[in-house]
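Demo today. Your pick:
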Amino acid sequence: MTRCVALLRGVNVGGVTIKPADLAELFRALGADNVRTVLASGNVVFDMDGPDDAAQAALKARIEQALGERFGYDAWIVLETLDRVRQVIDGFPFDAARDGWHPYVMFSSSPSSLAELLEAAPGLDPADESVVAGDGVLYWHCRRAVGSDSPFSKLAAKARFRSSTTNRNLRTLQKLA
């Protein structure tokens, strides 16, 4: 069994409301064991047999299809192993406890999306936000006062990234781990 993490995009925002109990039930129906939802923002930790890389891609597609059918929305997830999430947490390059700043990690199922987003990083004002590449993720540190109005946040919110990226606060990831 492998401990997995599904990071759902766009849950409990923009009219897509999914109760944690319903989400856990769906994952159990897909064959997941030891299912736990974390916060009400689309985070599911669960056990599954395998999955190797090929099986993980198939599992991701199955989960997205099941979410769409059950809850009636275009579902996109990033699927990781819990070990991988722990590695990402350990690799956070900024001072996560810095007062007045948000520590974020952007995950993606598309390396080209991360590369395109990273291209914007040199033009960011380091007094407000910084973005650096990690191993298959982007680490983003943003002043709370700037938040969703930051240039990087606005870029990451563009429609072309919706199906492949999702962002999590480092503290949420630590709760998942």
Summary: The longest strand covers residues 101-108. Residues 2-84 form a domain with the Alpha-Beta Plaits fold (CATH 3.30.70.1280). Residues 53-71 form the longest helix (19 residues). Helices lie at 20-29, 53-71, 82-90, 111-118, 151-156, 159-162, 170-176.
